[in-house]
Amino acid sequence: MKVVIVGTNHAGIHAANTILDNTDDEVVMIDRNSNLSYLGCGTALWVGRQIDGYEGLFYTKREDFEAKGARILMETAVDSIDFDKKIVHAVTKDGQAIEESYDKLVLATGSKPIAPNLPGKDLEGIHFLKLFQEGQAVDQDMAREEVKTVAVLGAGYIGVEIAEAAARRGKKVILLDAMDTSLSNYYDPEFATLMDENLRAHGIQTQFGEMAQGYEGEGRVEALVTDKGRYEVDMVINAIGFGPNNDLGKNHLELFTNGAYLVNRRQQTSDPDVYAVGDCATVYSNALQDTAYIALASNAVRSGLVAGFNLAGQDVEHVGVQGSNGISIFEQKLVSTGYSVKSAARFGLDVDYVDFEDTQKYPFMPEDENAPVKIRIVFEKGSRRIVGAQLASTYDMSATIHMFSLAIQQKVTIDTLKLTDFFFLPHFNQAHNYITMAALQAK
Fold it and tell me: Structure pTM?
C-alpha cells in the first residue's frame, strides 16, 4: 500500500513513524517547509534566552525517516488533490510540477494564523509566530537596538509567552486582547487574573478589552491603533489565534462548524481513503461528550498515532481528549483540563464548581520549598461527573492535572473524588490535601 502524508509536523510525523515501524508500506511525506518536527511551543524559550538555542527544538530529521524507507519531499507545496483519481498535485521549490498517486492519504496540514485585514498590515515590523522561520524573524527583529517597544496582539498562550520573552530581552511590552483577561479560553477570571497581575508585576503593560483597528507608519510600523487608544510601537507580534488549514480538502470532505475536517474515532474523514490528523481535524471531547476542535500539540501527536495504527492494519479507536494544557510565566504556573465554568456555559454544559486554596506542604516545611496552590474543580450538575479542573501556583503542581484528565475520560464523579486514596508525606504534601478538601466541599 502507498500512503501519502501531507504535512510533516507533530501529527504527520507520528503517523509516518507508526506506519513505518509496523508495515512495509510505501510512505511519501510532503511539506512546503524546509524543516520538520519543530516544537513551536518552545519558540518563546529561545527568543527569551531561557534556553541556549533552538537546535534542540527539532526532535527528528528527514534522515531518520529515509533510513526507514520513507521518501520525503521538502519545500514542495501541494496545490491540489484529485480525490477521485487519488493523485496529489504539488510543485517543488524550483517550480517543477509533480504528481503522487496514493492508496491512502493523510492530511496533516495543521492550522493557519488568523490575520486580521487591518490598514497598514503590510508595514515592516509586523510578525506572526508559528513556523520556525517566523520565530527567527521575531528573534532577529527584537535584536535591533532601535526596537524599544513591542506590542503583542492576543493574550492566549503564544501571546503571553512571547510577551514574557520580549520583556526578558529588555523591551517595553504592551499586551493587548479583545477579552477582559489573558488566557480566557482556558481559565476562569479568578485564575486568569493571577496571570494578569503577574505580567504587570514584571513590567508588561496589559490592555484588555480592546480591538486592534490598524497600524500606522512610514515603511515600518510606528503605532498600533485600537478602539480605545493609540500606542507608539517599534514592532508588533500577532498572536490572535489559529484556524484549521482546510484548503486542500474543503470542497470534498465533510467539515466541522469551524471548517476543520470532520473525522471519526479512527481519524477517517468522510472519504474513507483520506485521514486527517492534528490541527486541521476535529477531536472527540470527553468533557463535552461530543465532537470538538481543540488545537494542541498533545492532541496532534495522539491523532497521528491513531491514524498510523489504523493505516498499519490495527483497529485503534481514539479514546478522546480533555484539552489538558499548562503555562509557566515568570514562575507563575497555571494548568487546566476540560472546561472552565465560563467555557462550559458557552458549550451548553450545566455545571457547578468548588474552589480551595492551601499551601502544597505543611507550614512547618521550609518556605522556599512550599507555596500556596489554588484549585477549582468543575462538575456537571446532573451527572456530577468532573468536566474540568484548574490549578495555579508558583509551585510545580502540574502533574496533578493528569489525574483530572483521566478522571474526565473515565467519567469520575466529584463524589468519588472526595475520599480517593492519595498518599501523604510531609516532603510532598499535606494529609488533608487541597484536592480532597475541594472535593469534600461539593454539595
Answer: 0.95
